[in-house]
# Entry
Amino acid sequence: MRKPLIAGNWKLNKNITESESLARALVTDLADITETDIIIAPIFTALNRVAAIVDGSSIQLAAQNCYPQETGAFTGELSPTMLKDAGCGAIIIGHSERRQLMGETNEFINLKVHATLNSEMQVILCVGETLEERENEEMLEILTAQIKGGLVNVPAEKMQNLVVAYEPVWAIGTGKTASNEQAQEAHSFIRGLIQGLYSPETAEACRILYGGSVKPDNVDGLMAQADIDGALVGGASLKVEDFCRIVKFEKAGH
Ligand code: PGA
# Structure
């Protein structure tokens, strides 16, 4: 059984004071949640202060990016170890905004995956096709390249520290969510890829999150899909009430 995981990607939002107050509100409202893992990813400069707030709570801290080197002449960058030192247990890697805006390639993303796993932190590896790719029927090819490229030389035993987030680019921040069926189809395909690269056991154990306009009103349907194990939430993670409702999604059959 895969434990659900709801992660909030705050992106470039909320200054330090605002991040602290959002984190405080979440710690209070989500104090009794044990059946779902919860992660929040504030801006870099707020990490250390938010770490103090979520310490000992049900909420774990993630960074939104890292650089795949430990230390050295890499002006403006942060290594997984430095982020761990700031209180992070996880790092979001290969988000589509970074792929598109910063030109991150699957090769570079793979280096970050290794650096993060080597620091004994959890990876949230993001993949997803653009609208153009979907319309050109290239979706499966793109997902294959992103999953295989991101996981080059990642050994099976490290896969327990890796979560995949399927985020169709056309659904991010647009208010357009993939239908439950579209999301399930992509998740099932990704699980199949992981099975091909590793084993049925590794694929069964790997959590695959859906991301792209997840909101209180669509989370329950998405979470009812067999291969959807959680959500990576952008916009709605900035609102206490919305994020808490998403974390407390209603399980199918209840
Ligand atoms: P969104 O962002 O929920 O605002 O669409 C999701 C993401 O980019 O992770």
Summary: The CA atoms of residues 39 and 60 lie 5 Å apart.
